[in-house]
Amino acid sequence: MTDTTALPTGPARRTMIVTAGAACLVGGGLAACSSDSGSAGGSDTGTGASADGGSSAAAGSTVIAVADAPLEKAVPATIGGEEVLVTRTGDSTAVAYSPVCPHQGGHVAQQGTKLVCPLHGSTFALDTGDVTQGPATKGLTTFDVKVDGANIVTA
Protein backbone atom coordinates (compact mmCIF):
# COMPACT_ATOMS: atom_id res chain seq x y z
CA MET A 1 0.00 0.00 0.00
CA THR A 2 1.30 3.51 -0.87
CA ASP A 3 1.33 6.33 1.71
CA THR A 4 -0.87 9.13 0.38
CA THR A 5 -0.08 11.62 3.17
CA ALA A 6 0.52 15.04 1.66
CA LEU A 7 4.07 16.32 1.80
CA PRO A 8 4.70 19.95 2.83
CA THR A 9 4.70 22.27 -0.17
CA GLY A 10 6.18 25.44 1.41
CA PRO A 11 9.86 26.30 1.78
CA ALA A 12 12.02 24.04 3.89
CA ARG A 13 12.55 24.97 7.54
CA ARG A 14 16.25 25.59 6.92
CA THR A 15 15.44 27.99 4.07
CA MET A 16 13.07 29.95 6.33
CA ILE A 17 15.66 30.24 9.11
CA VAL A 18 18.41 31.36 6.74
CA THR A 19 16.08 33.89 5.08
CA ALA A 20 14.93 35.29 8.42
CA GLY A 21 18.52 35.60 9.62
CA ALA A 22 19.55 37.40 6.46
CA ALA A 23 16.61 39.80 6.81
CA CYS A 24 17.69 40.61 10.37
CA LEU A 25 21.26 41.26 9.28
CA VAL A 26 20.19 43.48 6.41
CA GLY A 27 17.46 45.33 8.30
CA GLY A 28 19.23 45.83 11.63
CA GLY A 29 22.83 45.46 10.55
CA LEU A 30 22.77 48.14 7.89
CA ALA A 31 21.22 50.60 10.29
CA ALA A 32 23.94 49.87 12.85
CA CYS A 33 26.70 50.06 10.23
CA SER A 34 25.49 53.32 8.71
CA SER A 35 26.85 56.72 9.64
CA ASP A 36 27.70 57.73 13.19
CA SER A 37 24.23 59.10 13.80
CA GLY A 38 21.89 57.48 16.25
CA SER A 39 21.64 56.98 19.96
CA ALA A 40 25.04 55.46 20.55
CA GLY A 41 26.35 58.77 21.88
CA GLY A 42 28.55 61.41 20.35
CA SER A 43 27.95 65.08 20.16
CA ASP A 44 27.69 66.77 16.78
CA THR A 45 28.55 70.12 18.27
CA GLY A 46 31.46 69.28 20.51
CA THR A 47 30.19 71.99 22.86
CA GLY A 48 30.98 70.18 26.05
CA ALA A 49 27.40 69.13 26.67
CA SER A 50 25.86 65.69 26.84
CA ALA A 51 24.19 64.18 23.80
CA ASP A 52 20.87 65.79 24.70
CA GLY A 53 22.40 69.26 25.04
CA GLY A 54 23.21 69.17 28.74
CA SER A 55 23.36 66.84 31.66
CA SER A 56 20.68 66.61 34.30
CA ALA A 57 23.23 67.42 37.02
CA ALA A 58 23.19 70.93 38.42
CA ALA A 59 26.30 73.04 37.93
CA GLY A 60 28.68 72.53 40.81
CA SER A 61 27.62 68.94 41.46
CA THR A 62 30.56 66.81 42.56
CA VAL A 63 31.55 64.24 39.94
CA ILE A 64 34.65 62.77 41.62
CA ALA A 65 37.30 63.80 44.11
CA VAL A 66 40.52 65.10 42.59
CA ALA A 67 42.40 62.53 44.68
CA ASP A 68 40.44 59.75 42.92
CA ALA A 69 41.33 61.04 39.44
CA PRO A 70 45.07 60.57 38.81
CA LEU A 71 46.67 62.66 36.07
CA GLU A 72 46.20 61.21 32.57
CA LYS A 73 44.02 58.30 33.72
CA ALA A 74 40.42 57.80 32.57
CA VAL A 75 38.37 56.91 35.65
CA PRO A 76 34.66 56.02 35.70
CA ALA A 77 32.16 58.35 37.35
CA THR A 78 28.58 59.51 36.78
CA ILE A 79 27.06 62.84 35.86
CA GLY A 80 23.30 63.15 36.24
CA GLY A 81 22.99 59.37 36.27
CA GLU A 82 25.02 58.97 33.06
CA GLU A 83 28.21 56.95 33.04
CA VAL A 84 31.25 59.06 32.14
CA LEU A 85 35.01 58.80 32.09
CA VAL A 86 36.89 61.62 33.83
CA THR A 87 40.49 62.48 33.05
CA ARG A 88 42.47 65.04 34.98
CA THR A 89 44.64 66.75 32.37
CA GLY A 90 46.52 69.02 34.77
CA ASP A 91 46.56 70.11 38.39
CA SER A 92 43.56 72.38 37.81
CA THR A 93 41.98 70.97 34.63
CA ALA A 94 39.83 67.94 33.85
CA VAL A 95 37.64 66.58 31.08
CA ALA A 96 34.67 64.20 31.13
CA TYR A 97 33.22 62.24 28.25
CA SER A 98 30.89 59.37 27.54
CA PRO A 99 32.61 55.98 27.33
CA VAL A 100 30.26 55.04 24.47
CA CYS A 101 31.88 55.03 21.03
CA PRO A 102 29.74 57.04 18.59
CA HIS A 103 30.39 54.51 15.80
CA GLN A 104 28.45 51.50 17.11
CA GLY A 105 28.13 51.89 20.85
CA GLY A 106 31.09 49.93 22.16
CA HIS A 107 32.56 51.07 25.48
CA VAL A 108 36.02 52.56 25.13
CA ALA A 109 38.87 51.69 27.46
CA GLN A 110 42.18 53.37 28.09
CA GLN A 111 45.21 51.89 26.38
CA GLY A 112 48.32 53.93 27.09
CA THR A 113 47.63 57.55 26.17
CA LYS A 114 44.46 56.93 24.18
CA LEU A 115 40.97 55.50 24.49
CA VAL A 116 40.20 52.53 22.24
CA CYS A 117 36.88 51.02 21.18
CA PRO A 118 37.09 47.21 21.23
CA LEU A 119 34.54 46.77 18.44
CA HIS A 120 36.32 48.28 15.45
CA GLY A 121 39.44 49.97 16.82
CA SER A 122 38.40 53.62 16.78
CA THR A 123 40.72 55.65 18.99
CA PHE A 124 40.12 58.86 20.90
CA ALA A 125 42.38 61.41 22.56
CA LEU A 126 42.58 60.90 26.31
CA ASP A 127 42.71 64.64 27.01
CA THR A 128 39.74 65.69 24.81
CA GLY A 129 37.72 62.66 23.68
CA ASP A 130 38.31 63.70 20.05
CA VAL A 131 38.48 60.91 17.47
CA THR A 132 42.07 60.22 16.37
CA GLN A 133 41.43 57.14 14.22
CA GLY A 134 38.23 55.79 12.66
CA PRO A 135 35.97 54.23 11.70
CA ALA A 136 34.27 56.68 14.12
CA THR A 137 33.97 60.09 12.50
CA LYS A 138 33.24 62.17 15.59
CA GLY A 139 34.53 62.31 19.12
CA LEU A 140 33.04 61.08 22.34
CA THR A 141 30.21 63.09 23.88
CA THR A 142 31.78 65.51 26.33
CA PHE A 143 30.47 66.97 29.57
CA ASP A 144 31.50 70.31 31.06
CA VAL A 145 33.52 69.82 34.24
CA LYS A 146 36.09 71.79 36.18
CA VAL A 147 38.40 71.35 39.14
CA ASP A 148 37.00 73.14 42.18
CA GLY A 149 39.20 72.70 45.23
CA ALA A 150 39.35 69.03 46.17
CA ASN A 151 36.66 67.97 43.68
CA ILE A 152 35.93 67.79 39.99
CA VAL A 153 32.46 69.27 39.54
CA THR A 154 29.99 69.94 36.75
CA ALA A 155 30.50 73.33 35.15
UniProtKB/TrEMBL annotation:
Residues 36-56 are annotated as: Disordered. Residues 46-56 have a biased composition (Low complexity). The keyword Signal does not apply. The keyword Iron applies. Keywords: 2Fe-2S, Iron, Iron-sulfur, Metal-binding. PROSITE patterns: RIESKE (PS51296). This is Rieske (2Fe-2S) protein. Residues 61-154 form the Rieske domain. The lineage of its organism: Bacteria, Bacillati, Actinomycetota, Actinomycetes, Kineosporiales. It comes from the Bacteria. Pfam families: Rieske. It comes from Spongisporangium articulatum.
